[in-house]
Write a structure and sequence with these properties.
mainly alpha
Amino acid sequence: MANRRLTPNTRLRAVREDVMLLSRGEFAREVVKAGAAQGEVVACGARLVAAWEDGEVACPRPVYQRILTTMTGRSLAELGFARQPSANAAVAAHGQDDGQEQEEDVERRRFLRDGAAVLTLPLTTMAGPGGRVGAGEVRAVTRSVAALYAHDHDHGSAPLRRAASDALHTAYQWLQAGTYTDRTGRRLRSATGALSIAAGWLSYDSGRTADAHSLYGEALAAARIADDPELEAHAFGCLALLAKTAGRPREAIAAAQGAQTVAKGLGSPRLLSLFAMREAGGWALMGDTSATDAAIVRAHHLYARGPSDADPPWLNFFTGAELAGLECLARADLGQHERAAAGAEQAVLLHGDAFARNRSLYTADIAIQHAVRDRPEPEAAAAAAGRVLAFLPEVRSDRLLQALHHVASALQRHHRVPAVADWIEEYRTTVATSGGRA
């Protein structure tokens, strides 16, 4: 790539300057806006537009191909882009698609620098190995964790995972090569552990459970080195969720109980409530109704004690809506489908307009429970399933695609019901169009 002779894209530049009368920055903002209208979350900036126009990127990635052709009303050829060779030819010639890799790198750097997804970790604060690391770097990591969670709640993990990985790499560079006091070192290690959990969550939501397990393990090690019980409890709680998802209920119960043991001295009843619900999920997966009910009751009692100044910032997702939602999942695992459907409906109602990704998942649960209950209600299931599809352009999450797949499987037995047949057709078309799998 370094030796490739660049051919400026004069056609794209002419469209931008002479037809649309926009600067590179203004054009980039229009790309982001047009992408959002198409359900695509992108981080285009002036640097990426320059890479297209200067010939650094011979052809944009498919997501930008769709946006640019729709936005300008012109074909790729009319915009001065050459079509990419096949993937196999590119790999054979270069070992990878250099244009796509460079474009992703340009976009990712802009994503981290300019805050298209509100990720604010600066990558150049420390001059080099042995550079001084202080409170500013610790604050940068902490801000990044908060920004990741804030964006993830509404849009899912897909646009964030690689950016989070880059941020985590930088934080580890500061830990390993920086110069800092013991106090700053402990704070930086705790902040990096929290960032590792955030990155692990994004991996989990993207269906990369092995990566998530590794990142949660790194966070647990960081917590113990830094003597940070809140981080340790959080890591145990995440491992409990991961174990339940993987179908290992005993491991889930043990991790959730470990989280509660560590968290007892933190002064946060709602943190304990969350971990009690994680324990309930493990018991439900084992089919132990009595133990599940006991853990759920304990979770509700703890939650009712109200918020505390000791509640960690990341716990803001654990509202009454989430409490109801987690109970609904446990009820579903116990085969209590009517209670599960009612709990999922309550969760969606209480969420209001917040936490789009969680609302989409609980709406999917409503559809599933209506489809599989003792007296199925296929029309109600299809109506809820239709509401799930409306989330798909905004929320980019592998778990949501999996949930839609489960909804489709549950509804298949009712395919002769017209409303269900219509939904199945719409589902297949929507998922195929959005690049998911049906």
